[in-house]
Amino acid sequence: MTDKGKPQPPSSPNPWDRPPSASKGDVSDMITFAAVGRAITAWEEFEHNFAYLFSRFIGTNIDELVASRAYGAVLTFKGRSEMVEAAAEAFFFSIPVDTANAQIQDELKDEILGVPGNRHGKRKTTGFIDEAKLCSGRRNEIAHGIVRQLWKPYFVVLNTMPLNHPPDSWGFAVVPSAYATKNNKLKPPARTNGMVVREGDYRYTSTEIDIIADSFRSLRDRAARISIWLHTFAQHRGPTTFPETEV
């Protein structure tokens, strides 16, 4: 609330936030499966560019094969992103200060690593690498979720289907697998009218999945743009302007 008592507009959602749930599921599982494919492809395109960005940080400006192989040998994205982050920190620590491009260098560093903020009023920002870490949670939900038909009124997957009380179909969506303990909280009602039910933390129709995929594509394009800048900097000691074109 403001001093005058007027409500403030809601803050914009972060790219890594779960989108609001749709009011209706997909009418066909094929629609949901297609959206899953688009999202996973978009994430893999991002990781392709992220590996290329790693090669720029460690200075392999001609052939990124060595860096790409090293990047792919790390099993989890958490580990890969921490490796890229460490390389970025070392890169910005070690490059010489270029007076003509000092502001551009600082802006790029802040975009990639974020601004820590302080008690003197400097605002903390989330860097590009941290955004990717946060978005990876949405990727994992889609990649490790399962496409299922859900039923009203509890938006659940049924383990048993009583013939005397058929539920209404809500539609198809991606939900956590039954064994995903972290994403399946124990909530009442555990049983309703003889139906064994489970309720997951998320349900993504093609609408929400495509929103999430757009955030992956944004990461992909930013990784490519930053890589171009770093390559140009290595070749010419810094461009005169920061590139804005998405690739």
Topology of this protein?
Layout lengths: L28 H29 L7 H9 L3 H18 L7 H12 L14 H17 L1 E6 L5 E2 L10 E7 L15 E2 L2 E4 L7 H31 L11
Report on the architecture of this protein.
- The protein has 247 residues and is mostly helical.
- It has one domain (29-235).
- It contains 6 helices and 5 strands.
- The radius of gyration is 23 Å and the shape is elongated.
- The model is unreliable at 1-10 and 238-243 (pLDDT under 50).
Mean pLDDT, nearest integer? Answer: 80
Strand order, biggest sheet? 2-5-4
Shape: elongated
- SSE series: HHHHHEEEEEH
Number of strands: 5
Short description:
This protein is mainly alpha-helical.
List keywords for this structure.
247 residues; mainly alpha; 3-stranded antiparallel β-sheet; 5 strands; 47% helix
